[in-house]
Amino acid sequence: MATRYFRLSDDVYIPGRWELGAPRDSQGREFGSRVFLRGEPAQVEGKLRVPVYQPGKPLDLTLADAGTVPIATERVATVLAQLAPNDVQLFPVEVDTQPEEHFLINVARVVKCIDDQASEEVRYWMPEDGRPDRVGTYSSVVGLRIDPMKVGDAKVFRTWGWHIALIVSDEIKKALERAGATGLKFKEV
Known about the structure:
By secondary structure, this protein is mostly beta strands. The chain contains 3 helices and 14 strands. This is Immunity MXAN-0049 protein domain-containing protein.
């Protein structure tokens, strides 16, 4: 039986939940979050700080900076480090108002596995769109489906050409659920 995979996001419908802003460096400047969307190892010097954009109930996993950068408690970071050490990098971060340590999760793996035919709708950037740097990658993916046969041994990854999608294996999903992690939302892909 093939492994099942899920798109991981944070549950934005939790009443009274917090929202986190863009990571900042030690001088208070925004640290380029795009670095963490590439699906490759990143370099970070010094400890980053993540501001609380909207106060509320802290969650074990929050996609900060407009839903792009995973920030997690030690509980979530430990699961990922143990089960997917080759797929993620963990950077300690300070989250305003929180005494316990949090981690920025850099998903350091990209897999070319989107199933165009099985997905509801896919669109590619074209030369006439005026974005030569994006031509040939996805401009839109609706109803994302992947081909599990193309995933290989990856357990946590971003999809090639559509890096905003954060995918986890069934093993990771179950381990996070067993850990009782809050803020998680899974959708099978």
